[in-house]
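Let us begin with a simple case.
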Amino acid sequence: MWHAAAARPLTAYGWDDSLEADFAPYAAQGLLPGRVVRVDRGQADVVTTAGTVRADTAFVTPHDPMRVICTGDWAAVDSGGDPQFVRALLPRRTAFVRSTSSSRSEGQILAANVDHAIIAVSLAVELDLGRIERFLALAWESGAQPLVVLTKADLVPDATGLSYLVEDVETTAPGVQVLPVSSATGEGIDVLSAVVAGGTSVLLGVSGAGKSTLANALLGDDVMEVQAIRDVDGKGRHTTTTRNLLVLPAGGVLIDTPGLRGVGLWDAETGVGQVFSEIQELAEGCRFHDCAHEAEPGCAVLGAIEEGALPERRLESYRKLMRENQRIVAKTDARLRGEIRRDWKLKHAEGRANMEAKRGRLRKP
């Protein structure tokens, strides 16, 4: 019979009293608790109280892709037998989800039970602020605390230039810590280690952002394979091909992910609002509560742009992400599809009426 005290080896992986309470029904069935450290082709590597086991995931592979087992999940595993099976998953506290590139527009869970979302951005290439905003929206929506890490800071020739880059990202990421680091010199690594020591962190970014090198710096060893990056565009081959969960020597655990070519939103309206919190605050001062911030009289957002208090790029990025998120949600929400269709017809009718009125005025002698 499994006893709660036996779970102490899982403490380093984030096991706590709340998880113990969630696991109680499975303990009564003689199952073992464990954390999923890797998933690959129907098999999962799970750290359990009896050591690391490779278990079949047939019992936790539902038709709903949002419920499929993922790195970071807490699981109930057979205590013996060959093969061993993951019998159930404990409720997820958080989940980092993106939209797939498939025509079905399904959600894909990249990591589960995450406390910190580390967004790695390379300073070896020009900053893509729009992409950072996209990552941040998904991070906020997941329930994790985002953190932007500017890698390869040693490649910036002077401190003033680095300060300007950090300031640009801070403007793009309100309420988020922005930390320049260098795995080559060690700059910022100790600060990052302290931030992620208390919980589970997922490391995100495009290929060539320096994620594997950063993971090695945090781990204090060359655990992750690193490929050479082309100097011309900062790109390289994906060095991480699966999502792996690793214990950090300073405390906490890290989930490293493959470089993401696409970062599609998935029902992330709250996350988008968090990224553009200054726009939502300004919107409270608009004359109309449903102001679209396009040409309405008394729009506080457009007024801020005219005054130079809000960059126009921020509003354009906000509009883009909100439209994209609305399209994604509409594909799975029939009611919302109907509302979008009605709004489109109304705007089309208004446009046609305005055009007819304009033509009428032009015809008058």
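The second case is a distinct protein. As before, the sequence precedes its structure tokens.
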Amino acid sequence: MTTPEFESNRENFCYRHPDRQSFVLCQRCMRTICHECQTQGPVGVVCPECMKAQRNAETPAQRRARQRWRGGAVTMAGRSGRPIVTYVLLAVTSLIGLLQLLPGVGRIITGELAFAAAFLYPDLSGAPFEPWRMLTAVFAHGGFVHLALNMLALWMLGQILEPMLGRGRYIALYLISGFGGSVAVAVIAPGTSTVGASGAIFGLMAALLIIGRHIGANVTGILVILAINFAFGFFVSGIAWEAHLGGAIVGALIALIYTRTRRREQRIWQIVLVAALTVVLIVTVAVVPPALLLS
């Protein structure tokens, strides 16, 4: 059954369901597909015909890796498959970022959420002990462009990773990666004050790289984007490349844990290993020589 709108502009309607308008394209054939016809790939979505062709071209090793990963992920994804956590993170972070743009109010919000190593060593710095800033800094940004770029990256990566990992593992990956970025700033550049979700975003990119490699996907594009974004921090002043590095390392380690403990009976080990990694990050900050703040 077709509609007059479909006959006049077929490109905006699903090629398999002409009565359903959509603006999502299959990443292989570039045809429009509706929500029902979308299959999440390592990067973007794929239509049923292209997915069938892709699976027919898989090597036996790639097929076994995909089936093992899919078998472990089915019980971890939300029922709807929608990236609800990503939407919540986008809403909360965007709201805080927009409030930061308001005269007067923005300065107060930034001052309350920004992170610096001084807040971990009150005896030395004279600042109050506020370790929670290592996470609150992830939700604040240094300007509209900073906010917009990070939220665009979060939206793109979240569409892929959250349905694949499930909401619990996805939010753990995001927050612990952001925390890892703050740890790197405290260790490498203790005199730097920082805000932004970049550490968490780099964690998501690194995780997508590891998971994509694990399931046999072509990860060259992801690797190039990750390298370009990381190198960008060295050439533009005001960018805390230390947070990028810390977030990417932590995100890669968490993704490695996820891929090695994907079976149901390994769930407890997955939780233990992720918790152990978090403890290691906390201990790392605890043993940083406070004298670095004097330099």
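The first helix runs from residue 4 to 8. The chain has a mean pLDDT of 83.
Keep these points in mind for the review questions at the end of the chapter.
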